[in-house]
Amino acid sequence: MGVRIGADVGGTFTDVVIELADGSFESTKVLTTHGGPDEGILLGIERIATEHDVDMADVEQIIHGTTLATNALIERRGAHTALVTTEGFRDVIETRTEGRFEQYDLNIVLPTPLIQRDDRFTVPERLNARGEVLVSFDETAAAAVIDTIAERGYEAVAVGFMHSYRNAMHEQRFRDMLLERLPNVSVSISAEVSPQMREFERFNTVCANAYVQPLMASYLFTLAEELKVRGADCPLYLIHSGGGLVSVETAAAFPVRLVESGPAGGAIFAADLAAKYGRDRVLSYDMGGTTAKIALIEDYTPQTAKTFEVARTTRFKKGSGMPISIPVIEMIEIGAGGGSIASVDSLGQIRIGPHSAGSEPGPAAYDRGGVDPTVTDANLQLGRLHPDNFGAKDITLSPEKTAIAIRTAIGEPLGMDDQTAAVGIAEVVDENMTNAARVHAVENGKDLAGFSMIAFGGGAPLHASRLMDKLGLDELFIPTGAGVGSAIGFLRAPFAYEAVRSLYTRIDDFDYDAVNQVLAELTNEAETFVRQGADASQRPEAQEREREAGGAGTLASSPDEPQLVVERQVSMRYKGQGWEIPVKLPDGEFDAFAAEGLGATFTKAYEEFFGRAIDDLTIETVSWAVRVASVLELPDALELTSEQNRIQATNMRPIFDPVTGEMAESFIVERDDLSPGDAVAGPGVIVEQQTTTVLGSHHIAVMQSDGTLLVTRGSTGSKGDLL
User: The domain 79-202 is classified under which CATH number: 1.10.287, 2.40.160, 3.40.50, 3.30.450?
Assistant: First the structure.
């Protein structure tokens, strides 16, 4: 593989990483340009190419992750969109389900639907749950709806008919009629975007896809063209929410799959490091400028889900957002980034987020017009950050502006001095992230005892050792390139696509023909998307190592095409239950024997989830999924390097030590000056270009052979831990 570039657009910074021909990485950070995110990407790419004397013509791949789709949904600045649905179901996206995110609030305010009622239209038609026609598609009524769409000048149309996941013919017919009349309108149909049961989630997903499609298509194709103008005549790929790469064309057709693209790269980055060090239970902790993301990684694979929520409106409570039913790496995301704004509520409590100062104007410390105190300001006030070694080239930190912001918004209202107010901000955000990790683990039925933490993102190493203490973890890994971890993860992602479709059948009355047909169609669909971008020059040794790992099927159309890994899964439940659990499927077609074995596999999985199975209840299958991915070379295994040389730092400054609760003279060490086996003991900071690792007085960091820092706990500080 030659030169490759990864670009991650975040809420505050745009991270750009270049992988050189010798396999080494270089990186840079630029402030995100919210008015035109492509400007920041192009600036970062041009800067790093110039700094390392790279000709853009030599770049073989550019891989991009973006928050643009997410921000468009949150800020409601997408296209003028209409929803067309089955007669009688106009208000599904507004009435939602019986679930309530505030169980006892009689005045609960439900989230505003993405598409307002005046923009929702119906057509007489109806299929049953088996895809059979109950009411024929009314073409006359459909034509009248299309006339209205034309008159009102809609830019995009979402089409969601009842049970179209079993039979797409009515949605397809409406799309054909619409495009024949209005060829320039963007059209999304739920049978292609999210062919899954549960109309509320499916309709929301197709609405979200249609809403952001014109914006994303324009952005992606413009970015691709601008890169070519600058000499990068190479493919541009996007990382999707499930952690795989897709072509620009696929991303433009299904932009809703990009909603969690950046964080997905971070989870891949953490999973790669977990595999290197043989850590099969890992807590991935990614903290950037706007949010913190926490994910669980087991057996070197991030946990995945088929649905998630975006744009939660009530303090990030589950059920208060917009459900999106697409494959996604499962994580919890909270408003706890470096730019998260601190304030005092009506009860006199310090609150952090969810609002962020972003990059425009940014934290008060950036001296770019921001006046609100943020987590970054607290870290500067506590000595963890310093103007002399802050990594962002476009920013000079201002301690004076920080002190004013903290004093005005936190210190004076609470009667605190500047330092105490900053400590309060830091402790609250650390506790918020700790609680998020605990909740995420409990919701997934996991006990974090025995887990290792991998921390990355510009903000995570500043807080990770404190979180490690609060969670009672014994190991913390800070990888090389931690400050731009998600962008590096892009370069380690496979070409992958997961196709999902609902098909109901029971184990005691298994529809073999329908199941085998659906699995074959899903495999073909996923493989088609993957082969649009998969590199045909994958090395044979990587394929062989994947085969030796076992557990997944493979596809290869010819010796000249890359081998692909196929993973199959089904969502199953007991009859009468409302939700399902995932069950892995074996290779091959289904027959009576395989169906019986599937029932036994479900029973075992159910016992692992809930502690016991339920006897004599009918077992049902609901949705089937096939994930096809290109084969990647497994990382070489590494052994931990023990402490060999205790570093005695001479560069010192006062830094707040949470272990003792006091400011203390602490070491400052450049990460680039450390060699494998070098150890530094807290309190102090290890600084590098894009982030800073903070160690309390009982933490010890040892440099590993690949440049990773392993942080563990030694003896407790003189005043004990402040857990």
Answer: 3.40.50
